Amino acid sequence: MESPDNVSGKQVGVRLPGHLYRWLKEKVDSGEYSNMAQSVIGELTKARALEEVRRRETSYYDVSGEEPLARMVNERIEGVRRELLDEVKRRRA
Predict the structure, then answer these.
(1) In whole angstroms, what is the distance from residue 78 CA to residue 73 CA?
(2) Distances (CA, A) of 54 to 23, 74, 82, 88, 92
(3) DSSP code per residue over the chain
């Protein structure tokens, strides 16, 4: 079996829950994507990029041995920062 690092493209067949199908279909209907396959790939790519950013940010704020209160404060600051970034993106759109 090939390792995932060596696979340049692989076809996968899945069944989407109705709420995800409708969400992706709206993106196709609005012209954001030209077809369902591109909408799935595009949204998965966005999700992966966000996950990688969050992982880097978490490691940036993670201080080894920090106290529970400091960790709670850092988590809240990170949450507010994300909310602000989302609001800025929403207003630009």
Answers:
(1) 9
(2) 23, 13, 10, 17, 21
(3) ---GGG-S------PPPHHHHHHHHHHHHTTSSSSHHHHHHHHHHHHHHHHHHHHHHHHHH--TT--HHHHHHHHHHHHHHHHHHHHHHHHH-
Residue with tokens 């600051």: 77
| Tokens describing residue 18 | 């109705």
Do 24 and 16 contact (CB within 8 A), yes or no? yes
| pLDDT tens per residue across span 35-51 | 999 999 999 999 999 89
Its pTM surpasses 0.90: no
Angle in degrees, CA 69, 75, 80, rounded to 5:
125
Q: How confident is the model at residue 5 (pLDDT cuts 50, 70, 90)?
A: low
